[in-house]
Amino acid sequence: MRPDGYAVRAIQLAKTYGAGPAAVRALDGVSLDVPKGRFVAIMGPSGSGKSTLMQALAGLDGVDSGQVWIEETEITGLSDRALTRLRRDRVGFVFQSFNLVATLNAQQNVLLPLRIAHRGIDRDWFDTVVAELGLQDRLHHKPHELSGGQQQRVAIARALITEPAVVFADEPTGNLDSASGARILRMLRTSVSELGQTVIMVTHDPGAAAYADEVVMLADGQIRETIPAPSVTAVLEALTRSERALIGGGR
Hints:
Elements lengths: L5 E12 L6 E12 L3 E5 L6 H8 L7 E6 L2 E2 L5 H11 E5 L10 H11 L6 H10 L15 H13 L5 E5 L7 H16 L5 E4 L3 H4 L4 E6 L2 E7 L3 H17 L3
Parallel strand pairs: 3-8, 3-9, 6-7, 7-8
Antiparallel strand pairs: 1-2, 1-4, 4-5, 9-10
Helix pairs in contact: 3-5, 5-6
């Protein structure tokens, strides 16, 4: 089935780590549809499977069974070479560790994915991304000359520069103070609302999740509930329900 209208689609994903009594069912029949131009946050208690799900959706890790689509391409079953090319061309990544190249300035870091892919620069798109992220006066600074928040904005610009089908953000505010973290979340929100991007973010922070259009709550490798137009209060209540279910042994 072609996932028309979706940036990402997952169908009955299963993933187990280990074997025998020590086996851990990280994903247990997870299905998820993410329409284009949406901001989705994935949450859950420790060990719920949220990081495993993001890695599977992004093609960073395989699954035991199930299907993952990125736009019109089914990525499960792709060769390593084809998967690497797809990630390079159609997926953006934002991690809490920034992963900037120390010897390159901000502009060079932003443009690095295009250089690696031997693609030309869309100057209008570059100017739009840089302006939205407020980086105009930092383009010629190297990472050590930038604050943590500025480095993270460079990382977001780098993730957006290829106009990917989807940006995956793994705890993007984890290493930032609250003010810098809030600015990054506003930038991700803007990339969806103003630039038409699709963002899937893993976070443990209810405040961060409240920036999303929808929160997907995992527990025991399964989606327990989804929260549309989430508020901090609604997310906190859902987390409490998940934790109580775990304590009670419910699946």
